[in-house]
Amino acid sequence: MDRAVAVLVAIAVVLAAIAGYLAYVHQAPAVRTVTVTSTVTVTQKATRTLTKTMTKTVHLIVAYDGRGVKIVLKRPARRVVVLTSYWAEVVTALGRADTIVGIGKYVKYDQYLPESVRSKPSVGSEFSGVNIEEIAALKPDLVIMDYGWGKCSEIIKRLESLHIPVAAFFIRGVGDEVKAIRTIGVLLGAEDRAEKLIEFIESRYQVLRGIASRIPAGKRLHVVMVDAYSLLRGGEITVYSNTSWGRSLLDVGAVNIALEKMPKSKWPKIDFETLLSWNPDAILVAGSPSTVQKALDKIISDEKWHALKAYREGRIYGVPCWGSIGGVLDWGPRDIIGREYIASILYPEYYKSIDWRRDMETLLTRFYGVFIPEQAFASYGLRWMEVVDLLGDHVRIPRHVERVVDFISYQLDVALHAMDKLVGISKYAKYNPVVSKAYPNVTKIPSPGSSFSVNIEALAALKPQLVIIWPWKKSVVEEIERLGIPVIKVDVKSYMGVKRLIWLLGLIYGRLDRAEKLIHDMDSIVGMVEKRVAGIPASRRVRVLYLWSSPTTVQGGNGTVNDFIVLAGGVNVAAGQYPDKAYVHVDFEQIVRWNPDLIVIWWWARYGPEKLLKDPKWRAVRAVEEGRVYKEPFYDHWGVGCSLFILWLSMKMYPQLYKGLDFMKIADKYYEEWYGIPYSAVAG
Hints:
The chain is of the alpha/beta class and about 675 residues long. Helix content is about 40%, strand content about 20%. A hairpin with a 5-residue loop joins strand 2 and strand 3. The longest helix has 23 residues, at about 1-25. The radius of gyration is 31 Å and the shape is globular.
């Protein structure tokens, strides 16, 4: 009995010490460790007294949110509800997406988030309110949200009345972003990851501010940022003032007129006459990518906008925001990318060293774990958009593309439902078995030649808005550019390069959603293959020789086919000796020395396996001796079918890993989805 009393006394001492400590801690996001030592005297028998010292260490997480409110957790949060997409992006970027158990109504539309997050139960929104009972039923140990607008105050009050910890933030600049990320990192037990993300943001912000400080006062543009949706709605126009987006103009060296005129307002509304009286040097139209496009169209069609200096001087720009693919500006990790974007369009001459697209790709790859390359992102003027081709060149094209000559990616044009935009096509497209079956009207599209030989007069007569071409014949590219026609140059050497091309075409044609789905389907097939071959040691991987138009023209280590062999789980026998070449002419003795386990022949080659199998000298090669010589099925090396080739090749190399898998069934379903025809109609 005495021992039990002693234990209870010890616990009481510990709890009292914790309470005293929590009253003492300073306001700073940090992990606090509480060590309490209590001494308890326990009497054993009448003649013996024993004193024991009981020491208990209690670890608590103590942090302060954007309101200055203290949050105390016994352990890193494991069940988190996030009410906005940008905080979901922060949690994802910190490697804690698996802690999210509930989301706000609009989080599911954020295409930068993994499906595992977007599919979580929706509990309402900060705009219209949340279902508190649904949140409580999820048993969260943390809710992350905003404060200072909408129904946030009401939501916070109700959550805290249920003793559900709330971390709330309102962002007015990069400094607030950094504090929020650090706090969330502490609450999730992801401090190291948070510091890496902060370093990514702060290093770029310092460069941005350094350049901005060197812009002369006389060169500082007076700018207004307007909400695209309010412009489309008509009536008063919402502008960005004392908010993070409004302050982004100051960060890049511009003057925010709205902030100067209305410094206490966040999103004030003005009439058009006020905007006209301000007569800004530049106007930024902010909204989702699709809304921005519509708003820019409205500005062009509405003559009252033509009186503005910004219109006359061509300084009206779109700023794509939020969570649709292509959106760059938002609270959260992408806020710094949005600032880089704004800097680059307002002051291209000062910010030449800033590559916001590359930084966006790095952010998404390194922290979000997704590959959405720079080719998926454009900057927007009133009538143009600027994209990056596969050589890394910036190309300015019309904002609405309707007339294209495509010399190479016509199979992808079919898959993206973009054939109606072609006014010219390569002469080889009409012989392509997929295009001819999936789009019989290809015969009606004029052909001014190919990437290697273009009839310039015929091309000019088609009046294309842009041309898509291989860059291998420089003189052809230069001839086209001399006509004033933008040229998209394509050079694909890997599976990732194929995905870059698909993203770029999706952007150009306004088919990003379809491009994303196509890439998802491709990755699903390739991912299945990678999982099955992952456990094969290097010493047991099948050694492959790929033959082109002749039996002694082989695939080197440079090019899509080499990458496909590796992804399929094989080793390209020629890659080590010729790492930088795609097509290599070798003598037969070299092939014998390589002694491959398996040989694949190009689909277009005018010979097949029988040529090798029936030639006695080829019996010296293991693949021939064992009958492992195949002609590849038809596929496009830089398009939809490459994932099927990777699967087909892996099945030939490791049939034991694919027992029961029906390649033709998978391929038929895949082709039906993307071409509207079964694969068997092409492959036989």
